[in-house]
Structures are given as C-alpha cells and as structure tokens.
Amino acid sequence: RNIAAGSPLRIRYADSTNPSFLLARYGFLDETAPATFCKYMIPHTTPDVVEVGYVPNQMLFSPATGEVSRSVWNVLLYQILAASNV
Questions:
Q1: What burial letters (b/e) apply to 48-57, b meaning 16+ CB within 10 Å?
Q2: CA neighbor of 36 nearest in space, from 72, 62, 14, 71
C-alpha cells in the first residue's frame, strides 16, 4: 500500500520481549527495552541450579546499563563457586 510522505514507518518484528532474531541477524540491541534475554542457557539443569534461580525466561540484562538480573547473577555465582570446589 502507498504511504504518505512524512508518515512514520513501523514494523513489528515478532515478539517484542525477545528480539533474538534481530540480535542474531543484525547484532544490535533495542536500548529502549527495559531488559532483554542474555542468552545464558544451561542445557542440563540440576535441582541446585533451579533452586538458586535458574529460570530461562528470567535470564535478563539491561541494554541501557549492562546490569544482569538477580537470577543471572545468582546462577553464574553458583556455577563459579561449584566449579572451584570452594
């Protein structure tokens, strides 16, 4: 369809809460999004990892600040400490 000159163009790219397709294809983040998935996936979860907070849809970070969610922090810290036998 024809669009009038000066009209804003908007395109919806699937799920706005998970711009994975765009991230993988073009390598950028929507900095206006409050959070996006950090792509930290654990293929074989254990009850311990789940107990400290591993929930795949909560593995988030802020594009604006780079801060990770508490879930990401807890899981990473747990895995580092478990691997070091501390």
A1: ebeebbbeee
A2: 62
**Strand stretches in the chain, DSSP E:** 36-37, 60-61
Summarize the confidence of residues 40-68 as an average pLDDT. 87
Q: What are phi and psi of 85, to 5 degrees?
A: 55, 40
Say what the pLDDT of residue 86 is: 65
Q: Mind listing the pLDDT tens digit for each residue in 17-51?
A: 565 666 656 666 666 778 877 778 888 889 999 99
Contact assessment for residue 35 and residue 69, using Cβ atoms and an 8 Å cutoff: yes
CA separation, residue 20 to residues 27, 33, 43, 44, 86 (Å)? 10, 13, 18, 22, 35
CA torsion through residues 33, 34, 38, 43, sign = negative
**At a CB cut-off of 8 Å and minimum separation 6, what does 67 contact?**
61
Distance of CA 29 to the CA centre of its chain: 10
